[in-house]
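Good morning,

Attaching, inline, the backbone tokens for the sequence recovery test we're adding to the shared suite. The designed sequence is right after.
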């Protein structure tokens, strides 16, 4: 009985050591954001990752690229996004997109003026 118990625990300990070593290796490896983005891009369709109403993937002026290049925060980035796509995603909702842009700009203005808490 003791011999069979030993056989059962040895592989588990060995597996646990391998897992631990693997975790340490993963933790030491620097995060490569570009590799992560490419992996996500490979798994999703272009309509999710690079929708046409935001410029499409081949467009150097795709909205997300501009937002990241300029370093806009959430509110300013969303305002820019809604201004750029107004009427392109859904022509019947162009006014709604412009109202959303105004909302985000107003929210940002109120934060900067101290009129609103986060």
């Amino acid at each position: 009985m003791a011999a069979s118990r030993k056989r059962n625990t040895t592989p588990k300990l060995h597996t646990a050591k391998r897992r631990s070593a693997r975790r340490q290796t993963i933790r030491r490896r620097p995060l490569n954001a570009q590799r992560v983005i490419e992996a996500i891009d490979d798994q999703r369709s272009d309509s999710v990752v690079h929708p046409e109403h935001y410029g499409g993937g081949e467009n150097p002026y795709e909205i997300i690229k501009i937002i990241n290049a300029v370093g806009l925060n959430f509110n300013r980035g969303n305002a820019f996004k809604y201004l750029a796509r107004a009427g392109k995603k859904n022509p019947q909702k162009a006014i709604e997109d412009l109202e959303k842009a105004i909302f985000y700009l107003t929210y940002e203005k109120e934060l900067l003026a101290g009129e609103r808490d986060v």
